[in-house]
Amino acid sequence: MTERVKRCRQHRPWAVLSFVVAVLIAWGSLTPGSGMPSQLPWDKASHFIGYFVLAGLVGLAGVRLRWALATAVLYGIAIEFAQLPVPGRLGGDWADILANALGAACAVLILAAIRRR
């Protein structure tokens, strides 16, 4: 078995988990507002954590860290604007986009520090 095949098999579970997390983020983000609590006191923290996990898993899936960050940030922006037509949701919130980007950046910075060791 070649080294490349071994690496692909090593990264596959992380790639599957990345996909699952991306689907969960989309589901939670695109649920109409009537299906959500009116006030979420941890809203920005949940954005931060969700995209921290997403970027971290994408990085663990073998994607270069700069691309893991770009993927998570662009996905967060896309989800925010996909919320615009969803009833009861306020899409395009720059504070949410910032929380998403900060979470993704923190995950990538931690992975970069671990890889340097």
Describe the protein in words:
It is a single chain. By secondary structure, this protein is mainly alpha-helical. The chain has a domain of 76 residues. Helices cover 74% and strands 0% of the residues. Helix 1 packs antiparallel against helix 2, helix 2 runs parallel beside helix 4 and helix 3 runs antiparallel to helix 4. The two termini are 28 Å apart.
Helix fraction, binned, reads over 70%
The Cα radius of gyration reads 16 Å
What is the multimeric organization of the chains shown? single chain
Task: Give me the strand/helix succession.
Answer: HHHH
Given the C-alpha coordinates, what overall shape results? Answer: elongated
- The number of helical elements comes to 4
Mean pLDDT: 89
Which range does the strand content fall in?
under 5%
Transmembrane segments: 12-30, 45-62, 67-85, 97-114
Organism: Halomonas urumqiensis
Protein name: VanZ-like domain-containing protein
Keywords: Membrane, Transmembrane, Transmembrane helix
Structural topology:
Blueprint: H1 3-30, H2 43-60, H3 65-82, H4 94-116
Helix pairs in contact: 1-2, 1-3, 2-3, 2-4, 3-4
Summarize this entry quickly.
This protein is an all-alpha fold and 117 residues long. The protein has four helices and no strands.
Summarize this structure as a short list of keywords or feature phrases.
4 helices, mainly alpha, elongated, 117 residues
